[in-house]
Amino acid sequence: MMTRFKSLLLSLWLGHSQGLSVSPVTAINSNQLQAEKSKLLDLLQATPKEDPVLADPLTKESLTISTTSPFLGGSRYSRQTFTLQSPSNTYRGTSGTFLDLLQPAGEDNSTESSLFKTVVPLIPPPLRSAMAGMNDEYIPMRDLFTSPSVSFAYERGWRQGFRAAGFPGPDQEAEMAMAYFAPSMAKSDDKVLVDMSCATGLFTRRFAASGKYSRVLGCDYSDSMLLEAGRRIRAEPSLLTSKSTKLDLIRLDVGRIPMKDNSVDALHAGAAMHCWPDLDAAMSEIYRVLKPGGRYFATTFLSSYFGNLQRAEGGASGPSKQAFQYFGSVEEIRFLLVSGGFQRENIVIEVLGNACVVIRCEK
């Protein structure tokens, strides 16, 4: 019954819009009519379709999703729930938040653990270090940025502090990354860009607004960061109405990327690598998902940047030591990239200012 109703409704709507019975009012409002027709088609188009990029993070099997319209850009009419299925697992997402590909639906963390992660970053450093040992699930390197207070502060002073290490501003770094990605994008029909550890979408928004990419995926482990990213994206109307760029927010683990082999043209990770608990797994996964000729652009810190933080916290056992990876040299980073699969001759690393490392490498 429902299928026949949909078919009839579509026939009537399409026939009307194609001029079978057009009144003067309809002619005057043709643009509005076309918009309403597109809206109706979006709402009725619920047939599952295999996503060309996303995959089950556990099995790497293909995922089917029930809508083909942009996840954030294009579904402004109602809040929709998305189901992504592989032969082995089911994942969920909503149009108002993100696609959660961190773990299968139903495998939620406990309330106690979530509360713990929220409260710990607000506690003074010495006590925070002691409390971290009380909860086996709290991993400072992974969970510091899951706090809503950190997500709120990220673009309100936190990120600006990176200038002391020599980081370029967000606009300049985005331009540097896009210039490096241009050759790989020129050879691609898909033009898929991943912004890994996107935080509040500082770079995701810039990549999407450029109009250079067919699909931009902002990815992060932190649900609170993704919620803040979604809020900021919705505050920019042009990102919501773009016809050229499909914009998605994805919750994931960089050590277990939910994407197909050879499916991504370019991957950016701004001030992120020092926050990844398992660097070997992360680099292997990044290499796996990049297409041949795909490019990786990243910025991170040399360990010298954290010296002052350690001294302020009372030594090498302070929270900054627990929360970040320490890269003592450029060669250490180069070895990590080679171990992940990149060829040494395809890796270029430079240091800006005191401690900002800029990484460019091609698969």
Automatic annotation (TrEMBL):
Residues 1-19 form the signal peptide. Gene3D superfamilies: Vaccinia Virus protein VP39. The keyword Signal applies. InterPro entries: Methyltransf_11 (IPR013216), SAM-dependent_MTases_sf (IPR029063). The keyword Chaperone does not apply. Residues 194-297 form the Methyltransferase type domain. CDD domains: AdoMet_MTases. One of its GO terms (molecular function) is S-adenosylmethionine-dependent methyltransferase activity. It comes from the Eukaryota. Keywords: Signal. PANTHER family: METHYLTRANSFERASE (PTHR43591), OS06G0646000 PROTEIN (PTHR43591:SF99). This is Methyltransferase type 11 domain-containing protein. It comes from Fistulifera solaris.
